[in-house]
């Protein structure tokens, strides 16, 4: 509480971070625009971009074919990258993501359900990583690694506390991954919906909206919440677990042991059962899409299942709108398909379950980054350290670049 | 997003505010302790305390009877004060609160239910204000005014959008109060539970807990939520309306028109009806206390009513713990009596309705500031401006001190 204003050295570091973050999130900008946007004079901007250019994270060049005198500052996207992993219930994605947010390369595999083998998981990601790193340029530097996981993650050490196919045993996935990759980097782990919220807030439909809720559907329903521009983490990093909000106390049994949790009423199992497709049939994203497609073709059972699911989704959204007064609610994962097919029910429930004030300006939207929302969030998590202190992180990494092909075999 | 690091002038203003806020919230401190706490050298601290002393907001003196060389810096509590109003469902409180948070003087009246007469309300508060201001010293300066209101308040202009005895008509209470008091000050209005959360966070049981939820019971249930040390306001300031979270979709009709809202299941009416005391009997805080007293004496109906109310309260708390992963949940207003009498039900529901991780470190507590929680919150709202920029606000007010006895008659 008593923190004094920052020192000159902190000011310089923060300005470097602010400038680099701007280039990273919004793309190339002229020195003049940066000076105006940051409220700094042009000589200060020139000193900052000079430092960043020397560190190899941005480049400055005259824009082609224009008479404009101001140098454009662009991110060195292929030279400065992170590794991003998305560990979903049904799939595994690994990507090399360059500064500026461009996905330079990616690998993807299906993931078997109903078993959780940390060794196999780490092994698969390490294999992907070797392929990705090998393709990077000789002068490229990996500045971070992040993973999105569909479960409850303790902020302090990245331990998985609870997951849909995992139950409630603690797994030190971040440590295991960091050791196995052996890139001299810690792999930061975050809850997939929390990272999805960050991604949509920074690069998706939620840009410019400081108060938003991201709902991510897969087997269950996860949530990530941005409050006043910052991710709601809670005391230990478990914040945003809206899937276990009870919306129907006499409802369906949830995997957590409780009755009528939002994810029990809105998750994949509930939808498939209501549509008469439970049991041994297809599961996952494709199965959910099949219900939506059937409803589009006029299948009454599918349509009814979506409408009933939409009622509960609407009740959950209404509760969250009352609690948070958000500017936007974003539907991602399977909810990207379910919401448009049940929007009337969701909106009707929202209109009747909450006083007017908190809902009158809320926008309901689907995730703009599509199937990559949580992957992009993992990349942003990985970029966090270098954006907070660019020069220090770059200096450390450039003096100790490991040889991944030798150590991760 | 692109905000640059602060200028020297902003640094000085922020340091003055930080120092004054510390003295205001934590009481007298030595220059040496301030220097260490703020990480500034002693000559910088001396310059800051000198400015604040010259402005008349703090005084510096040698501690009596000790050999300690460091001057103590204390708030000028009787010279610098705010007006705080608490507009509850059943009572009206006005107080003069000095810098440092000391309640210097107060007036209180009962408020009739089931009618909302803004003119009468403003008139009553203006009358109290005249009495309070008249008793202040000649050299005292009123630096702000704030009011806690048991309803939904729009942040932008302090308009009341929804209230228990008010329905959903818009009332510009802040404007009306500011005009009528004619102190040259804007009366800031906040939702009572939001301000209660701030008060308990800054001066009550929640000190040092950056993630907490305050639940305030009266006719309904209000909520105020602190996320990462900051009040959750939402897009328009309506955040924290947990009373309209639906916990029982086939439950009791709520005043908002919905079914089974937390406040419909946990509010005063539900408790009194369950205890067989609905209808024409006593209402309000005393009626709730009578149920708790009866249960203590062994009255089975009262005990059962409290236990059933505790079940729903526990379900609401469990939902909030899942969503926020708070370090603490604080029960205020009538819930200060209801929670201890139903703690077993609340805790049992919490244990079964949420996965272990988000609840394992949460503490359930009653409000430490007692019946004054929301009043103290209104005072802190009023102090906000002077703490953000002490010298500028003081300079403005000292050059234009109005004569309240002449203008508010």
Automatic annotation (TrEMBL), chains A, B:
Keyword Kinase: yes
Domain of life of the source: Bacteria
Pfam families: ROK
Protein keywords: Kinase, Transferase
The keyword Kinase is annotated on this UniProt entry: yes
GO molecular function: kinase activity
Family: Belongs to the ROK (NagC/XylR) family.
Protein name: Putative NBD/HSP70 family sugar kinase
Record lineage: Bacteria, Bacillati, Actinomycetota, Actinomycetes, Streptosporangiales
């Amino acid at each position: 509480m008593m923190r004094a204003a920052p020192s000159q050295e902190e000011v310089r570091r923060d300005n470097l971070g602010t400038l680099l973050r701007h280039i990273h999130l919004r793309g190339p900008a002229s020195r003049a625009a940066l000076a105006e946007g940051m409220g700094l004079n042009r000589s200060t901007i020139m000193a900052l971009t000079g430092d960043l250019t020397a560190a190899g994270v941005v480049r400055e060049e005259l824009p082609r074919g224009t008479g404009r005198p101001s140098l454009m500052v662009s991110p060195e996207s292929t030279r400065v990258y992170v590794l991003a992993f998305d560990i979903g219930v049904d799939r595994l994605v690994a990507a090399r993501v360059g500064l500026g947010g461009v996905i330079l390369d990616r690998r993807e595999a299906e993931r078997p359900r109903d078993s959780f083998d940390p060794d196999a998981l780490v092994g698969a990601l390490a294999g992907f990583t070797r392929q990705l790193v090998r393709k990077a340029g000789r002068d490229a530097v990996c500045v971070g690694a992040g993973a999105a996981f569909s479960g409850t993650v303790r902020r302090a050490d990245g331990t998985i506390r609870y997951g849909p196919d995992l139950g409630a045993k603690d797994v030190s996935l971040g440590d295991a991954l960091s050791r196995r990759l052996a890139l001299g980097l810690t792999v930061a782990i975050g809850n997939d919906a929390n990272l999805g919220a960050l991604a949509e807030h920074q690069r998706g439909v939620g840009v410019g909206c400081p108060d938003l809720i991201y709902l991510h559907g897969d087997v269950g329903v996860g949530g990530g919440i941005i409050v006043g521009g910052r991710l709601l983490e809670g005391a230990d990093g478990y914040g945003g677990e809206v899937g276990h909000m009870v919306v129907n106390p006499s409802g369906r049994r949830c995997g957590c042991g409780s009755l009528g949790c939002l994810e029990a009423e809105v998750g994949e199992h509930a939808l498939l059962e209501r549509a008469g497709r439970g049991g041994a049939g297809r599961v996952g994203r494709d199965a959910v899409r099949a219900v939506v497609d059937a409803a589009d073709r006029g299948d009454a059972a599918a349509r009814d299942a979506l409408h009933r699911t939409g009622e509960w989704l609407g009740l959950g959204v209404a509760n969250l709108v009352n609690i948070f007064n958000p500017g936007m609610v974003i539907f991602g994962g399977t909810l990207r398909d379910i919401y448009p097919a049940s929007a009337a029910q969701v909106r009707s429930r929202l209109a009747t379950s909450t006083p007017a004030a908190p809902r009158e300006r809320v926008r309901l939207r689907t995730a703009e980054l599509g199937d990559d929302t949580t992957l992009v969030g993992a990349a942003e998590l990985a970029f966090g350290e270098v954006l907070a202190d660019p020069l220090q992180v770059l200096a450390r990494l450039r003096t100790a670049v490991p040889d991944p092909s030798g150590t991760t075999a």
